[in-house]
Amino acid sequence: MTRYQKGIQTIIHDCLGTSKGERAIVICDKPKRKIGADLFDALVGAGAEAILCEIIPRKQHSEEPPKYVADLLRSADVFLVPTSKSMTHTQARRKAVANGARGATLPDVTEEMIVRTMSADYAEIHKRTLKLARILAGAKRIHITTKKGTDVEIVTEGRKFWLDTGVLTKPGAFSNLPAGEAYIATLEGKSSGVVVFDASFAGIGMLSAPITIQIERGRAAKIKGDKGKLRRMLDAAGSKGRNLAELGIGTNERARITGNVLEDEKVMGTIHLAFGDNSTFGGKVKVDVHLDGLILKPTVVADGREIMKNGRLLA
Q: Model-level pTM?
C-alpha cells in the first residue's frame, strides 16, 4: 500500500470511523475526479452504501451546489467533498451537518497533500486545538501584529471558537481535511487596523509580494498589492464580499506552506483572516464568497494575554 493509499484509508477509518451500511456520499468535480473516485472506492471497501456525485466546477469558493445535490448531502450519514472550489462555507454543507451528517470538505486537495498531512497524529491535533480554543474562550478583542506591518484589532465579543481537528466520528461533526485550526467568526462592523498578508491567499495562491488590506469598521476598505484580482473576487459577490469574516489559528505540525490555502491555513504558528461569508459558523453575513489569506509569524494577544509570539504558540 502506498503512502497515498494509507492517507485515503486514514480518512475513511481513523477520521470518519466509517461503519458498514452507512449512507455515504462523495461530491467531486472534474479537477478532483480521481481523488473523489479513490475516496468512493475506500468507502465501498469499508462497507458503506456509497454514492459518487460529480458536479460542474463552481465559479467561486462558497458558491452553492445544485439543490438536488444539497438534498443528497443532507440525507447522508457520512460525506466527503473534494472539489476545486470550496463548499466549506455553503448552506448545503451547514444544513447537512445540522441534520446529523458528519464529514469533511477537501477544497483543492492534492495527492501530495494527502500523503504529507494525513500521516499527522490527529488525536494530538485534536487535543492541541481544543486546549487553544479553551484558552481563547470568551475573548473580546484579539490584537495581531507582525514585523511586516500587520497591526489590527479583531473584535470577537460574543462569538465562540470552533474546532477543525479531523476527528469526525460523532453525528454532526465537521472539519476540513487536512485539519488543524481553531477559528471564530469576527463581530461584524467592529474590527479595524492594517493586515499584511505575506504567504498565500485563496484564489491567488502563493504571494510573490504582500497584499495589504486596511480594515475599517469590519470591512476591507482598501486593498493594495493584489493587482486588482482580490478586489474583483470579493466585489463580484456584492458589498458583503468585503466583510471581515473569520480569524483562524493553525495547529497542524505536518502542514506546510504550498500556496493551497486548505493546507496553508492549518500550518502551526500561522494565522489567517477571511473575507465574505461567516454565516455557517456563527456570523451574520451570508454571501457566495469566502476567501482566506495567510499571515506568517504573528504575535497574538487576546484580552491582554499573549497567545502567540512571532509565530510560536505559547499555549
A: 0.87
